[in-house]
Amino acid sequence: MSQSFYARDKFQASKFWVEKYEQEASKNWDRFYKTHKGNFFNDREWFYREFPECFRKPEWRETEEPMPEHIEVDEFDTTTAEPSEVMKSTTKDEVEVKPLPEENRVYLELGCGVGNSAFPIIKNDPTAVVYCCDYSANAIEVLRKRKEETLSKEDQLRIREFVCDITKEDVCEKGAVPKNAVDVCTCVFVLSALSPETVKIAIENIANALKRNGQGRCLVRDYAVGDLAEVRFENARRDGQKLGDHFYVRSDRTRSIFFSNEGLVEDFCGGGGGDNNDNKKHFSLIECTKFARIIKNRKDETEMRRRWVQSSFVRN
Q: Which end of the chain, C or N, has fewer beta carbons within 10 A?
């Protein structure tokens, strides 16, 4: 056996495995949803609180009554761990951000899973239409079943789900999404599941679907550099778990990127280098914030330090 084999850091995956995880990405997420079905993620009732200009106000916020216990406002019950890092647009000639229409808004949920964004949007906005896609056929099947079991015939027509790999297929063609007609695209813990090389392909897909000239928005929430999950990866240093800079594979073979504010903004607004620099004209930054929170488990009195980025971009 060569000396270079023994000298290699086994924490870093070989090129063979990096490519294999890329090729089998949809297969691995399909297995995830076959196992967990609709029981893993909560519905995202926090959209209005974080992006009030992009979503209709939920009915329960119209009263002064306490928030219903069954509503999951956020994933985290938290206290601030450190000041948030905020990036905002500083360019004077950026595109003007135009208000969204009051009715008949068109949403696109990328990496929709079982519809944890789509169902709250439909519930709170009686005229909205949500196109939602995932590259797991199992996830889409769970979404479709929930839709048929819980929504009226009219509301079922307002969720338009389809299977699509956003790094290889055009969402407009695959899902009959009207080109440059979407008001808001949501990407909640979605881009991190891709590879760094394919994130820009997904962004191109988003750009093709969104309305232009300051009308379309892309909203992102995802893992940040230094999050507890990344710290655990680095502390464990299991063989083959590191795929690249801030890029890892979990034990179930799904992957995760951890973003910095600067890296995410560069992906959307800077073109990111390479032969294709078209992304530069697609998006402008509205705001990108890195949050750091201490999450307390009241039952066992443990604490977790979580970090995530939350961003909004406007289509040029």
A: N
Taking every pair of Cα atoms in the chain, the longest distance, rounded to a whole number of angstroms, is: 71
Q: Which two tokens stand for residue 124?
A: 């709170």
* Rounded CA separation 113/134 (Å): 6
Smallest CA-to-CA distance from 36 within 136, 158, 167 is with 136
Burial 212-248 (b: 16+ CB within 10 A, else e): eebbbbbbbbbbbbbbebbeebeeeeeebbbbeebbb
- Measured distance CA(278)–CA(287) in Å, rounded: 21
Residue 275, Cβ density class (10 Å: 0-12 exposed, 13-18 middle, ≥19 buried): exposed
- How much is the pLDDT for 38? 61
Q: How many residues does the chain have?
A: 316
- pTM value is 0.86
pLDDT digits 0-9 by tens, 90-119: 665 568 899 999 999 999 999 998 999 999
Distance of alpha carbon 67 from the chain centroid: 26
Q: Check if the beta carbon of residue 135 is closer than 8 Å to that of residue 163.
A: yes
**In angstroms, rounded to a whole number, what is the distance separating the alpha carbons of residues 286 and 312?**
5
Q: What distance in Å separates the CA atoms of residue 201 and residue 85, rounded to the nearest whole number? A: 27
> d(Cα 243, Cα 246) in Å, to the nearest integer?
8
Dihedral angle computed from the Cα positions of residues 36, 41, 43 and 47, in that order, rounded to the nearest 10 degrees: -150
